[in-house]
Design a protein that fits this description.
- It is a single chain.
- The protein has about 280 residues and is an alpha/beta fold.
- It is globular and about 60 Å long.
């Protein structure tokens, strides 16, 4: 990823707007851009199909863990049929940690598999159970909703935890040793958001002890992830190269939004389809 740091931004004397081709802004020094009078924006995932693509990828990763995708190659290499025996997604409890655009798309997909869904959202914090039950998200696919204070309770009950949070100072390392310790032995974690949400040492320890039953990640602590990383040597770990939101339709939609924004800016019109952060 190209880094637009303070040095680069200082040279951009005519620049008016920086738009990230996607959601994350880790590669942009927003503070430096703000001081230079340059607006910074992202493209919300709900506007492009990116969130739905990520939700589909979550399903793929869950099924890959449940069906022991890595072990299947060993069976093929050994010409063994009928193994490994996997598990179904049907009947599982899934905890969506960070119920934003991706979670909103993921929940109805999970319903089709007969899954019980728990979800936490920061804006739901402090609400009474009765108030939470009356909340509507447009598809009403979540069985139980909670605020941040429900995080460990829901982690304790889940067979699979899906991290969909935004990475910020309050969520860095949110899946830490304490979080992992309350999870069921043999449960899974799927991360399609940001690598920093998971405490590396805690996750590695949980894999080595056998407490964590499986890990599927599309994002890593540093990218690209070293293929020799100790976490990747475990047979119950799946990794994909940051492609959860990469699909032709999402890229086409993002390209159109950026082209529209450039045109609107050039003729003095208000921009549409992007979300300013400064």
């Amino acid at each position: 990823m190209m880094r637009l740091d303070a040095e680069v931004i200082a040279r951009a004397k005519r620049l008016q707007l920086i738009v990230q081709f996607g959601v994350g802004l880790e590669g942009v020094d927003v503070e430096a851009a703000t001081k230079a009078g340059i607006k910074v924006a992202r493209i919300p995932s709900a506007n492009t199909g990116n969130a739905f693509s990520c939700a589909e990828h979550c399903i793929y990763m869950m099924l890959g863990l449940l069906r022991h995708q890595k072990d299947m190659w060993s069976s093929i290499a050994a010409k063994r049929l009928g193994e490994p025996a996997g598990s179904t997604l049907f009947g599982k409890t899934v905890f969506i940690l960070g119920y934003g655009h991706i979670g909103h798309e993921l929940a109805p997909l999970l319903r089709c598999f007969g899954v019980y869904i728990l979800a936490v959202r920061r804006s739901w914090s402090g609400l009474e159970k009765e108030s939470l039950s009356r909340l509507t998200d447009g598809n009403d696919s979540v069985h139980e909703k909670g605020g941040s204070e429900h995080t460990l309770e829901f982690a304790r009950r889940a067979d699979i935890v899906v991290t969909c949070c935004t990475l910020n100072p309050t969520t860095i390392g949110i899946v830490d040793a304490k979080f992992l310790s309350v999870m069921k032995k043999g449960s899974f974690i799927v991360n399609v958001a940001r690598g920093g949400l998971l405490d590396y040492d805690a996750v590695l320890g949980a894999l080595e002890s056998g407490h964590l039953g499986g890990l599927a990640i599309d994002v890593a602590w540093s990218e690209p992830l070293d293929p020799s990383d100790p976490i990747l040597q475990h047979s119950n770990v799946l990794v994909t190269p940051h492609v959860a939101g990469v699909c032709t339709s999402a890229y086409q939609n993002m390209g159109k939004i950026i082209a529209d924004s450039a045109y609107q800016l050039s003729i003095g019109m208000p921009t549409s389809g992007i979300e300013y952060v400064n």
